[in-house]
Amino acid sequence: MKLAHGILAMLVTPFHDDYRLNEDALRREVQWAIAAGAHGVVAAPSIGEFLHMDEAERTRVFEIVIEETRQRPNLSAVAMTSGATTLETLRHAKIAARLGYDAQQVIPPYYWRCGEAEVERHYRMIAEAGDLPVVIYHNPALSKFNITPRFAGKLATIPGVVAFKEVLTDLQHLEALYDEVDGRADIYNTFRAMLAGLMLGAAGGFINIFAVPAAVALLKTYKAGDYQRAEEIQRRLNRCFPRGGEETLGHLGTTKVTASVATGIEMGPARPPYMAPADAADRIRRRLPLLNEVI
Q: Which one, of 192, 221, 196, lies nearest residue 206 by Cα?
């Protein structure tokens, strides 16, 4: 099985003001991502607050996203099946497989600190269960575990591991990662390193919903050989959504606000206790026009 090469939209999970799942907004978000040119979607990723939902809510998100995705041919559907333990992940993987997802995205266990032997055991057990192909999600700020390029190369040899979603943007790290994985699995970059990833041979990007139109435009421009314009899109993309990262206070709340502004769909608040700065929407509204000029 091969994931679509291109832009896979990571969806936020919309909530009503009382924190109930907003099913209509979620359907419209998937439709918006597809209309914006996404080649696939990721249901309930980190910015989709997978760990803030109970199993029934998360399953309902999986159901809605796959229903909307399957209305269009040739789109990849990925479910974030991660849990604090391997057994929890396996339970969500079976649900996603039953619903018809193409792959699962899995971060290392994120509460107790793990060593390499434990993380390797985690991925081997999930891959060997055979429910869905595995996309390894490297985000050390959230998992508290750093997948070195050397260790990524080892994980890439596990049958059933088909791809990596890499959050880090350091060029030396990325160069070593591509060297060590050596084509045994696809690599998808974050939007902040989209152009660098493409130059190194990326399969595309796992992209936050608000950055999908710009990432689609960057990919098209790069493929057309207009590297100067691709560089300008990357620069404006990073200025519009400046580097903050998961270690920054207000990151999750700001992501929800940014998704609302960029898509025009009210995504609601992040679940408590997480909040956004009071001026988050105004900041994004001021920055978006400069980005939209080049996409």
A: 192
Q: How confident is the model at residue 246 (pLDDT cuts 50, 70, 90)?
A: low
Of 283, 151, 150, the residue nearest 210 (C-alpha): 283
Residue 176's contacts (CB-CB under 8 Å, 6 or more residues apart) are 149, 150
Taking the CA atoms of 284, 287, 289 and 294 in sequence, report the sign of the dihedral they define.
negative
Q: What is the pLDDT of residues 109-119, one digit of tens each?
A: 999 999 999 99
CB 82 within 8 A of CB 137: yes
Q: Which domains does the chain have, with CATH numbers?
A: 6-292 (3.20.20.70)
Sequence-ordered alpha helix ranges (H) in the chain: 23-35, 55-69, 86-99, 116-129, 140-143, 149-155, 171-181, 194-200, 212-223, 227-240, 251-263, 280-292
Helix, strand or coil, per DSSP, at residue 69:
helix
d(CA 111, CA 128): 23
| Span 37-44, average pLDDT | 98
Q: How far is CA 196 from the centre of its chain?
A: 17
Nearest to 78, CA basis, from 31, 132, 22, 37: 132
The pTM score is: 0.95
Q: Tokens 């439709």 sit at which residue?
A: 31
CA-based nearest residue to 89, from 75, 69, 106: 106
- Please say whether the beta carbons of 15 and 267 come within 8 A: yes
